[in-house]
Fold each of these.
Amino acid sequence: KTVIPLVLMLYLGLAPIYWLPGISFELLGLVKIVLFVVAAGLLFLAGIVGDRARLPTGLLGPAGLGLSLLATTGGIFQSEMALAINVTKDYLLVFSTLWMFYLLAQMNLDAEKILIGASTLVALACVPVFASKYLGGPDFAGPPQFVAEHLWISGFSSLRTGWSNGIALYVAPLLLVMVRPMSYAWLPRSFAALGVCAIILSQITVAGRAGMLASLLVVVCAFAARGYRKVLMVMAVAVAVFVVSNLALVASHLRITRD
């Protein structure tokens, strides 16, 4: 019960990261595959030993996987073999991850802590992205097969859109810590707030508009649901003042005005 959450947290934390300084794209990809296989193997083995190795039924179970693959059969037969393998692999990965979290619930393991830990790792990876452009931090070029020549262009991914959209998924677990004062002390809530800020600042740095909007929407929904409307109003006014004061810079950076 200690090893499985740790391995799964590392895998999820590295999921949106395609490369790291000194670590190639291929090596990091291999590390993530090993982490996933180890986490899945240990989890299913623990479920078998504890007589809890049951998969969900319905569309979230094996039947859903079969229907998903069946729905893509026409496109697969018209495509190259490599694409068919990638599509099958993607569906297997998605459903395997769903089943792993289902087994976590069956074994009474805290999935929330795993997601929060993974989100913390992602937030830490976001710091050098905006620091490389705005704080004079070290800059790194991506692997040769990637287009970006600077870390602040696409983060630790291949393109700005992929980086921004990927890290947007990790805002919600940190918000769970921020908006629940009865469950978490002020210190972890403060670190969670810093993590959310790091993710959004990283999205702003690479100018990933869709991911940034998704993160802001999650923040608004979380604060509104908890009744923090005054905080939202202050944040909205601050953002509006900044945008109006730097309208040309914001429009250029976010590529709002393009021919």
Amino acid sequence: EVRNVEAGCRIDASHGEVRIYDVRGEVNVECPYGSVEAEGVGLGFTVVGPHSEIIGRRIQGAADIQNSYEDITLRDAAAVTIRGQHSGVDLEKIRGDVQIMNSYGRVIIEGLSGRLFIEGKSLEVSGKSLTSPEIRISSSYEDVGLVDFSGPATVTLSHGACSLQPRSLMNSPIDVRSEYGEIRLLWPSGESATLEARSKGGNIEWKLPGSPALRKENGETVVKAFPGAAGEPAVYLSTSYADIYLEERTAESRGE
């Protein structure tokens, strides 16, 4: 255990439990087997723990985490970079950019004020309360769900469902390209943006006010709507052999 250090510290442990509290400088830890827990780090927090659970709270600098087969939990942190395999990632109240490369795991993030980049396969993604200048997510064989988010969002997905509940479409274009997975978009009430939705071998269920400007069915269902909203953010949704659902986001659908 390390506690109340005015400078930084470096810890190399082959296995065991590492506990770090209130370090003003940078923290570097290597712990292949065991667990690492830190609270109150003044600068950067770097951990290499191939088979270690990692927990960090009140991290003032950038967090750079590498692990596999164990969970990563960060609360109240600045920029975050995570490289993992079979890792469960749980982030809350992140003030900087987040970059995650992970496979065969799950990512949960709530409260973000930076960019979000997630890339992996068989990776479930769940995001809430995201205010981001850019969101990019790429995954497969698991679901992606974003609730109460703003900022340009791009999702590339196969064999998984995508559910989006944007806070607003103003300055927040959405681009979802999926294969073999349904797309569900809850449209912010009262807003308009140019829309194009395409489903090859599937249907498009329209539950928005008004009627689509164009609808074709010839092996591919195409819906285009709100053409008068030129210049506003565009929404593009595309999938194959699955359905697209478009409905209005109301207070009831938000669970209020």
Amino acid sequence: AGGVPTRAEAALAWSVVENALERDERDPAAIADALVRLETIRAYAPELSDRIALFGAQLEHALGPTRATCARYAEAIESPHTSVAAQARVGRVRCLLDTGHRDGEDALAALERRYPDLPMRTSLHLALAEALEGWSRTRDAIDEYRTIDFEQPGSAEATVARGRLLAIGGRGVRVRALSAAQEVERAERLVRSGPPDLASDEIARLRSATLARPLAAEVALLASRLARVEGRFDDAHALMREARGLEPAVGEDPEAVDGIAE
């Protein structure tokens, strides 16, 4: 007892930690066990302190982040390994936002400057929007939610954002709707990226709305693309003719005509 763990004990501890981090559904008991196992890894390989700090922060975050969790991430940021430091920077920003720390907003802006192509940008902005609500900055939260739904309408984050907008509106706060042009642009993103059911519903809604002819033509064109993807080639042809009748210029769109069965 109290000695240096064996290689086998350290390997087992590492496996337990990895399994706890990879689970889709967080198991508090498994996470608590993994946190204890981290100390076994620390005793065996103290040179891995940066990874231990990162894993510890991630495990604590899954249970419910605290200011101490954010400090663990800050420790891991000092890692000489770029991947560890990058994960720690992202984790710290999310931690600050999830704990309602007002430095989180500036930290997110700094993170985006460092990593312009940040892959988890949408989820971080959802965390920012939720933090803004907690800070009683409702108008700013609405803007964030609207941007998420407009830019990534098919994402899981957008589903949450739409729910929050409905809840805020239900409290009597005015939530400005997208313009007709923005709604058509949002529908185009859905047609391109899915999910198909949501794209189909949005196209159907827009086709029943009163739109200016150029916008109505764009919607008919989107409906044609959707019909083509679904294998409804007769409908795709008819919708293309409708789009051209409303706005002849849309007939020049190669994506719309390419691949439609003759």
